[in-house]
Amino acid sequence: MIGDVGAQHLADALDGNTTLTKLDLGFNKIRDFGAQHLGDALQHNTTLTTLDLRTNQIGDVGAQHLADLLRHNTTLTTLNLRTNRIGDVGAQHLADALQHNTALTTLYLYDNQIECVGAKHLGNALRHNRTLTTLNIQDNKIGDLGVQHLGDALRHNTTLTTLDLSYNKIGDVGEQHLADALQHNTTLTALHMKEKGMANGYTRKIQEFVRRNQQRKKSWVLK
């Protein structure tokens, strides 16, 4: 495990690198300090497309530096922050950056202590972002209110195709909000909502709307 010091040395080595396309630093006990150096080094990198920082110890400060990376970088397409500690504040930093980013297509925020406030900011980002196609926020605590914010955004978003909301303490009220929102969405083709005890009429409606979008996508391909 390289930790923050190792991340700093690696960041120094990456400055000016023009060949690396994928960087996997998962399970390395990298904290905010290490994330800062990596974010700073990669802001103007033009070759890296995938940055994997899963299962580290990055908090909201580190997320802020990674958000700065997203504001300036135009080639990174996948950012994996699964199992860190960014929380609502970190989610806000990333969401603000996503409103201006035009390259990122895949963002993993699985298991990051994100609650309804963070979901609200991510929803705001989805209203403006036109490139993100996959968002995974599984195993957080966004709840029914957080789902409402995301659902409102899905009414307007036209690019997101895959959304994972599993294990987020979503109940009937949250499912209803999603079902209502998906009536107006035509692009989401994969929605994951695994939750204990989740099986009601709203779940079936949600599945129907997603299948409708899948069929529309197939028809577009055939035309």
Automatic annotation (TrEMBL):
SMART domains from the UniProt entry: LRR_RI (SM00368)
Source superkingdom: Eukaryota
One Pfam family matching this protein: LRR_6
Protein's name according to its UniProt entry: Uncharacterized protein
Organism: Adineta steineri
